[in-house]
C-alpha cells in the first residue's frame, strides 16, 4: 500500500512531513494525523490554528478540531474549546474515551483537563496587539481564517482525516465553523475515501462539502474530479461564491490517489510520499 499524507495550506507543510514521517515508521493513519496536526497547532506563525491562533471578538482563542477514521467511521470532535492548544488530541480522546462524538466549550475544556492536558493562555502578545488594533478600527468583520486539514493512508490501508482551526478571526464568541462537523469540514469512509475542506465555514457547512466529495468518490470519481464537482456544485447554486473567500478541498481514496481544488487560485496543498514532500498549487 503506498503511504501518503496530504495537508492544506503552506503552514500544513510541517504537518504533512510529520504525518508522513510517522506513517513511514509504521504508525497508523490516526496516530500519524494526530502527530502531524499537532505540529501546526504548536506553530506560532500559523495565525489560525492552535497556540498563537487569532482570538474571538472578546480576545479569547476558541479552537475547533476533529478526527475521523475510515475503519468503523469513528469520529471525535471539539468545538469552541479554550485554553487547550492540543485540540486535535482532545478530539481523538472524545472519540476513544467517551460515548459521544462532539464536546463543546467549557465541557470540552473540563474533559481535556481531566485527561491530563494543562490549560495554557493561547493568545500570544503579537495576536493580542492585532486584536487591539482590530477593536480600535471598530471591527470590520475580519476575513482572516484557515484550517490545517490532514488526510493520510497507512501501510495497512487505513484512512484518516484530521482538522484543526481557531476559525474566523474575531468571530462572535461561541461561533462554531465547519471544521469540527462531520461531513462538513471532514469525512472519512474506509471504502470510498477521505476528504476535508477549508474556507468560510458558514458556506462549507451548508453544502456538507466533505461528505459530498466522499460520495462522489464512492460513485467512482477520481479524487480530483470529486473535489472539482463539489466546488462546481456550490458555484452553480450560489452565483456569489466567486466573490466570497476561497474554499479549498482535498481528497484521498483508498488506493492512495489524491486530489485537491480551490474555488479561486491561491490554494496550496502539501503532499508527502516516498518521493518526498512538495507544495502544489491546487487546480481551480
Ligand atoms: N473553515 C474554517 C472556519 O470556518 C476557516 C477556514 O478553514 O478558513 O472556521
**What is the CATH H-level superfamily?**
(Glycosyl)asparaginase
**Total count of helical runs of at least 4 residues:** 8
Bound molecules: aspartic acid
- Which assembly state applies to the chains in this document? single chain
Distance between the termini: 29 Å
Task: Write the CATH architecture name.
Answer: 4-Layer Sandwich
Number of extended strands: 12
How would you characterize the largest beta sheet?
8 strands, mixed
CATH fold-level name = Glutamine Phosphoribosylpyrophosphate, subunit 1, domain 1
Major sheet strand order: 4-3-2-6-5-1-11-12
Low confidence ranges? none
Text of the CATH class: Alpha Beta
Number of domains: 1
Global outline: globular
- Going by helix content, strand content and strand pairing, the class is alpha+beta
Mean pLDDT: 95
Beta-sheet strand percentage?
15-25%
Characterise the protein shown here.
By secondary structure, this protein is α+β, with helices and mostly antiparallel strands. The chain has one domain (4-281): (Glycosyl)asparaginase (Glutamine Phosphoribosylpyrophosphate, subunit 1, domain 1, 4-Layer Sandwich). The protein is 32% helix and 24% strand. The chain is built from 8 helices and 12 strands. The radius of gyration is 17 Å and the shape is globular. The two termini are 29 Å apart. The chain binds aspartic acid. The site of aspartic acid (ASP) has 14 residues, from helix 6.
Amino acid at each position: 500500500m503506498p503511504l501518503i499524507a496530504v495537508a492544506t495550506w503552506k503552514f500544513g507543510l510541517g504537518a504533512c512531513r510529520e504525518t508522513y514521517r510517522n506513517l513511514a515508521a509504521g504508525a497508523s493513519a490516526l496516530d500519524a494525523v494526530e502527530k502531524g496536526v499537532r505540529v501546526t497547532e504548536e506553530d506560532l506563525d500559523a495565525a489560525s490554528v492552535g497556540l498563537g491562533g487569532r482570538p474571538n471578538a472578546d480576545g479569547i482563542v476558541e479552537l475547533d478540531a476533529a478526527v475521523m477514521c475510515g475503519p468503523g467511521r469513528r469520529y471525535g470532535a471539539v468545538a469552541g474549546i479554550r485554553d487547550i492548544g492540543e485540540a486535535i488530541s482532545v478530539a481523538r480522546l472524545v472519540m476513544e474515551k467517551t460515548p459521544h462524538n462532539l464536546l463543546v466549550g467549557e465541557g470540552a475544556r473540563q474533559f481535556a483537563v481531566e485527561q491530563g492536558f494543562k490549560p495554557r493562555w493561547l493568545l500570544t502578545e503579537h495576536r493580542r496587539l492585532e486584536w487591539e488594533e482590530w477593536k480600535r478600527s471598530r471591527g470590520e468583520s475580519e476575513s482572516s481564517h484557515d484550517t490545517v486539514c490532514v488526510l493520510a493512508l497507512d501501510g495497512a490501508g487505513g484512512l484518516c482525516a484530521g482538522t484543526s482551526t481557531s476559525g474566523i478571526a474575531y468571530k462572535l464568541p461561541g461561533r462554531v465553523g465547519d471544521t469540527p462537523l462531520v461531513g462538513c469540514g471532514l469525512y472519512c469512509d474506509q471504502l470510498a475515501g477521505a476528504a476535508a475542506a477549508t474556507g468560510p465555514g458558514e458556506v462549507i457547512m451548508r453544502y456538507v462539502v466533505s461528505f459530498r466529495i466522499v460520495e462522489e468518490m464512492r460513485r467512482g470519481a477520481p479524487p480530483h474530479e470529486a473535489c472539482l464537482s463539489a466546488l462546481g456544485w456550490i458555484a452553480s447554486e450560489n452565483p456569489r461564491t466567486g466573490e466570497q473567500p476561497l474554499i479549498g478541498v482535498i481528497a484521498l481514496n483508498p488506493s492512495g490517489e489524491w486530489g485537491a481544488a480551490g474555488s479561486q487560485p491561491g490554494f496550496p496543498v502539501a503532499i508527502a510520499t516516498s518521493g518526498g514532500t512538495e507544495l502544489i498549487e491546487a487546480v481551480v
